[in-house]
Design a protein that fits this description.
The structure is a single chain. By secondary structure, the chain is mainly alpha-helical. Helix 3 crosses helix 5.
Length: 173
């Protein structure tokens, strides 16, 4: 369930993922690719640290965040909104206000990554790679056999089919 950050509350995102999982009878993991790829510059970190120090919170309307402050500040706000979105900024402000020991961008980026949930999809994807690869080869062989049966490019297709048969024989006895 990508974009789980749009639910703002991880509990709500988990509930939505659970309902989806029930409907499709498969595991559904709430993740936020946006938070997983978030990177904060040193200037942005300093800006967020100052906002947290002064007690600024993410307003209910993102536009209010963008229009606050002097003009030179709006550029930084817009960049943060574009890359972290509302939830990422909210997390950053809460984290920096509560944890003065978060002292640099690496620590903040790592926390945004952790909260993205992306680590939870690594194992299920890894478990399925072999099966996906196998079915892609089956699909490729089927297409090549269709081309061969039609008599098109037989000189090019038959060596590919032979090579594919060798690959399949070594991988799946």
């Amino acid at each position: 369930l990508n974009k789980s950050d749009t639910h703002r509350d991880p509990v709500v995102a988990a509930e939505v993922a659970a309902r989806c999982a029930e409907q499709i009878d498969q595991a559904v993991i709430p993740v936020s690719a946006l938070l997983a790829r978030a990177t904060v510059t040193d200037d942005e970190f300093g800006f967020l640290r100052e906002l947290a120090r002064t007690g600024e919170e993410m307003p209910a309307m993102a536009g209010a965040f963008l229009s606050a402050g002097p003009d030179d500040e709006r550029v930084v706000r817009a960049a943060l909104m574009r890359r972290l979105d509302r939830t990422g900024i909210e997390i950053a402000l809460e984290l920096l206000a509560a944890h003065p020991d978060v002292t640099d961008t690496t620590m903040l980026d790592r926390e945004l990554w952790r909260r993205s949930g992306i680590d939870e999809v690594i194992a299920p994807i890894t478990e399925r790679v072999g099966r996906v690869r196998q079915w892609r080869l089956v699909e490729l062989r089927t297409r090549l056999e269709t081309i061969d049966a039609r008599g098109h490019d037989r000189d090019a297709v038959e060596p590919l089919l032979a090579q594919l048969a060798e690959t399949e024989a070594t991988r799946w006895p």
